[in-house]
Amino acid sequence: MDASQSLANHFLIAMPALADPNFVRTVTYICEHSEDGAMGIVINRPMELDLATVLDQLDMTMEAPGGETPVFQGGPVQTERGFVLHRPLGDWEATLEVTDDIGLTASRDILAAIARGEGPERFLVALGYAGWGAGQLESELAQNAWLSGPADPTILFDTPPTERWARAAALLGVDIGLLSGDAGHA
Q1: Which residues contact 2 (CB under 8 A, 6 or more apart)?
Q2: Other C-beta atoms lying within 10 Å of the C-beta of residue 184
Q3: From the centroid of its chain, how far is CA 144?
Q4: How far apart are CA 28 and CA 40, in angstroms?
Q5: DSSP of 140-182, one letter per residue?
Q6: What is the greatest pairwise CA distance in the chain?
Q7: Which pLDDT tens digit goes with each residue over 146-165?
C-alpha cells in the first residue's frame, strides 16, 4: 500500500447496519494505516469521566481551566491506556505525527502540560483505541460497514460529540439519518 491509499487523517463513519457494539454510530479518526493494519481513535463517545478525574488518578492536578473536559472511549483495545489527539504538534515524548498539524501522543508529559495550561491549543483525551489487523479494515470497507472520507479538524475538536457522526457523513454529502440499518431484500 502506498501513502496515497492510506486512510490516515480520514474519518471512518459507522454505517447504520454496523452491529458491533464497540462501533455503533461512531466516528473514528484514523491515525495510522498501512499494509500491516490500522489504528484510530473513536471521537464521539464521551465517557462519564472528566479530565480532572483522570489527572487525579495519575497524581496530577488540573491547574488550568478545562478540568470538566470529557474523556472519550477511544476504542476497545487497551482501554486503560490514554491517548491525546491534538493540534498543533509539540515536543512530546511519544507522538505519532498524523499530519503536519495533528498528532497522537501517548505519554504523560502532554497531560502534565495540559494540566499546567501549557499543552496544545486543541486536544481530545481518550482511553483505548480502535485497531485493525492487516487487511481487516479494507475487508470491512468492502462489506460497506464504514463510510470513509478526509477528516476535518473542526469536527474533531470543535463539534459537539453528539453531532460528529452526522456531520462527518455530511462532509461526504451523505445524510446518515436517511440510511436504514436494515439490509434490503430483492
Answers
A1: none
A2: 5
A3: 20
A4: 6
A5: HHHTT-EEEEE--HHHHHTS-GGGHHHHHHHHTT--GGGS-SS
A6: 60
A7: 999 999 999 999 999 999 99
Is there a contact between 6 and 38 (Cβ–Cβ < 8 Å)?
A: no
Tell me which H or E stretch contains 138: helix 136-142
Q: Give the tens place of pLDDT for each residue, 69-106.
A: 999 999 999 999 999 999 999 899 999 999 999 999 99
Q: Which CATH number does 3-178 carry?
A: 3.40.1740.10
Report the C-alpha dihedral over residues 112, 95, 121, 75, rounded to 10 degrees: -90
Phi first, then psi: give them for residue 112, nearest 5 degrees.
Answer: -60, -40
* Bridge partners (DSSP) listed for residue 133: 37
Instruction: Give the H/E segment covering residue 110.
Output: helix 108-116
Domain ranges of the chain: 3-178
- Exposed, middle or buried by CB within 10 Å (0-12, 13-18, 19+), for 46? middle
Quick one: what percent of the chain has pLDDT higher than 70?
94
pLDDT in tens, 23-75: 999 999 999 999 999 999 999 999 999 999 999 999 999 998 889 999 999 99
Count of beta carbons in the 10 Å neighbourhood of residue 156: 22
Question: What pTM does this model have?
Answer: 0.93
